[in-house]
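User: I'm putting together a teaching handout on how multi-component assemblies are represented. Below are the sequence lines for each component of a complex, exactly as they appear in our records. Could you produce the 3D structure of the whole assembly as structure tokens, so the students can see both representations side by side? Please keep the chain order the same as the input.
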Amino acid sequence: MMPQHVVVVGNGIAGITAARFIRKLSSARITVISAETDHFYARTALMYLYMGHMRYKEVKPYQDHFWEKNAIDLVRGYATRIDTASKRVIMGGSRAIAYDALLIATGSQSNMFGWPGQDLDGVQGLYGIPDLVTMERWTEGIVRAVVVGGGLIGIEMAEMLHARHIPVTFLVREKGYMDYLLPEEESTLIGQEIRDHGIDLRLATELGSIQSDKQGRCRAVVTTGGDEISCQFVGLTVGVRPNVDLAKASGIETNRGVVVNEYFETSAADVYAAGDCAEFNRDGIGSRRVEQLWYTGRNHGKTVARTICGLRTAYDRGVFFNSAKFFTVEYQTYGDIQARRPASVRTILWQDPAARKLLRIDYAAQGGVVRGFNALGTRLRQDVCERWILQRAKVQTVLKQLRRAHFDEELGPRPYKQLIRAYKQSEMSHA
Amino acid sequence: MHSTPSLQLTTPGSRYSARERLGLALIGVGLVALISVMFGAGAGANALSLWLTMGCITAGSAVLFSGYLKRPAGVDNNHVWFTPATARGMAGWLLGIVFTGFYVLLYWAPHNLEHLVRMTDSLSYMLRGEAADRWFLYGFFYTVAVLIMGARMILKYRGNRYQIVRTGSVMFFQLGFAFLLPGILKMLNQPEYYFSYFWPLKYDYIWPNSISYFTSASGLGVFMVFWGVVGTAVATPVLTYFFGKRWYCSWVCGCGGLAETAGDPFRHLSDKSLGAWKVERWMVHSVLVFIVLTTALLWINSAMGGGLLGALTGVLSQWYGFFIGLVFAGVIGVGFYPIMGSRVWCRFGCPMAAVLGLLQKYFSRFRITTNGGQCISCGNCSTYCEMGIDVRWYAQRGQNIVRASCVGCGMCATVCPRGVLRLENAGRKSRYNGPVLIHEDRVSVQLDDTWRANRPLMPPAQEDIPILTERDVQAMQLGGSRAI
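Assistant: Of course. Below is the structure of the complete assembly, with chains in the same order as your input.
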């Protein structure tokens, strides 16, 4: 059944994708509520605003006239509660918006782990525009910054500060950068890239506490090892957690996130949740129970739009893929590459450390079926890699056809011969 | 707290290193010396003035741009929107006024440039065997700008082979085909001819009076006419079919050459709005229609022995030369770099770009391929497109980019942080791939009647892109995924 009025709370990638696809599927009235900004912007581009690559205008994926043209009403305001019985969203003040179907797409919040001093001035995470505004204020004219947490946001923040000529100390709990996701060679290569940019990368180092000056502003961090690092800004980038405030206040079932099934249906009728804030009620729906990537947000939004419009569709994560950029090194991954490879999986690795390029193909030791790809500093074609994985292509086939996946710039170098040599060596070492 | 949506980040203090300051100082000295020469300083020592001013500017640029080598190779657009010169700040407007002012002097008050022209006499004698004139001065400055800023471009994008080769190509064609060769021809008493320009950009190359002039000159003149006709009638469609319009616009053309080198710091200033695109299409095609009509009229007139137009012929060609050739291509096209971006002329005025664009759009293997569902909508591609194409619009829906105006500079693919874009020449069948994200085929294949019936509710804002055809739908329902 087609709802008359769909209300979406949150104008991030999941909420906006849902709104756009609901518009494609129906003529329902659509209202998108956001407390953060008037318009949808690319959260992934926050760093480029601070670095001066783009202005706010440029990080909005659609020009402002798009929303009116497509009859998507934008409401700036904070949704405090959902009255699921009378089907109304309660806004700040006494305002309420009635809905027939409601999508919670409230995204994430930055993690804080109760460190002493985490609420001081000059200490913050990085998730949205408000964070960028405070970061702008706290980092003006400072001498050193410390970034805590070796994930994707941490390295982005380090790059941002570096672009502003602010010396950065980067505390990473693990022995290698992102070594919980990346095999050793990848982790090492990125560690070198970080250091090449003059970042004071400290591996296997954890935050103990943040020290305050007399004005309540951070003046130093102390590691668990007892080292004190003087700094005027601390970036806490130790992951994000689903923003469940709205669902919790409304009596909707939450765990880590807003609990949903494979149709993004919550415990309340006609209330859906998608994107970072959703948590699947069992394993095997997504790649994890909580998926917090740009791509998964977009996929959630597109799928839930169909369900809301009466074309009930189960979520299908498909072949895993993700991408990132570590300073100048691009990263793409397809399929399943594990940081610690089990004995049943073999790998072909080619790398050119001087050029910061690396290509890895993992395949099953028995039968040679390809499992996944990691590319650093070189680009692969998604549909080709995906098809190899779906069709359970063998490693020999993939190597033979590797040119099809080539996506680096024209006239650029192609590492295929070296890769085939690496494969032969790998096979010989197992023979 | 409501954050302000028109987020205006403060400008961080510029931090020039000692090296950069030295470079800027040397360039400054060279420019001041040039202005002094313009007002008559060093009039007795023209050759010395030339080498001193150019030496200072070149050395200063070398010192300044060698800073790129200090940083790891990669996309280097930090502070572009914070720097007044590249963000339409005061320095940007000042630069615009200086560039525009130079063109105004060159076209309408050349006597002010007399001393500068004399300064280049020695070089002109060496190359052409005769004294310099203002056009030689202009060509000299133009070539120096392409070479110096081309070197900067190669340093800046040294991690990208496509950018290096392409920049080398425009430097080669500017220096060889647009500067040295015409000079040498002059020395040999041949007609001055630019082998890198074709009709309709060089609008008079196939006009009746030019052809009679060239053919009356010598054997070489006949070859020039042949070259011009082949360039327009054969090379243009054939090369554009295989490589897209880039073979000319961002590899050979002198206007493109300057835009791709001296214009690189300003490429992000192009207008990306839908309105600008509409203006662009009307304007550039109007110029094309005008030049085609003019050329046709001139030939008819010539066939009728001047009976059709009479004295009007000269008027028509003069007006075109003045408004399009001088005002548009020069004053606005280059003078406004720091305000409207580096490709104003190419985008809104160049009839050659219009022809190449039509061929590229309807009769070419060239496209920018979008890599599945990898786009993160960040906007770097659109921002750094000098032609004002909203590349992200296509990329974020997994769609290939097939646009008449794309000059194939490759910058969208270079600045993309996720490896989403690639310039390619490949089979024409796979060019338009529809707006479906590959990864989501399984979700979007079940396009039922409701979907189709309601589709008009989502009017494609950029209307000339085909949405899904029935064949696309059938292919997806059958296969689930497309052929490579």
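A couple of points students might notice: Residues 274-303 of chain B form the longest helix (30 residues). Confidence is low (pLDDT under 50) at residues 1-13, 436-484 of chain B.
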